[in-house]
Amino acid sequence: MRKEEVAMESQPAGAGPVDHRTLPRRRGETLYAAIFEATLAELADVGYARLTMERVAARARTSKASLYKRWPGRADLVLAALRHRRGAPSPTPDTGGLRGDVLALLRDGAAQLNGLMGEVIRGLMAEGLRESTPIATVRTSMFDSRNRRMSEVLDRAVKRGEIPAHAVTPQHIALAPALVDHHFLFYGAPIPDHVLTEIVDAVLLPLLTRPA
Length: 212
Prior knowledge:
single chain; Tetracycline Repressor, domain 2; elongated; mainly alpha; 67% helix; 2 domains
């Protein structure tokens, strides 16, 4: 392992720098866990806008080079830390009915936006207005995954005879989560549950069940 990948101990303000080469080496999952924990702690303390690779490296007691070797920038690192905290993806809801399945999906998405994921999404969108940002990473990590789960829900509803097959379109798949995002971006968190039920009952279900 390269020298810059060994641990670096953070110091109080005003203290001199510590030679991280003198500290115990950490590898594999131990090092990853320390980096992810430091990333999430930085997010909670200073928010996405002020989070830097340098701050995370200092908090994790490792080198900045160790971070950049694994993640090209802070967006990739932060999303990896959030995935690590959440663990394995949740199974697609199957409540036995379309309305219950969609509400379960939207509530899961709202819970993410109400937490650190929401802070990251806001930060990335603001960052994208100023400079090139890996928003495609967010799309792959969050949007593509939830659209896949929504597609599964709608396909099951077709098999149960709740909606016609022609109702399963890319626009209908993405509509309800996009409306949740819209509410979050304009009104912030937490997202009230009545907003989710209105999206399902007043917008999505009427669209899905209308005749061709």
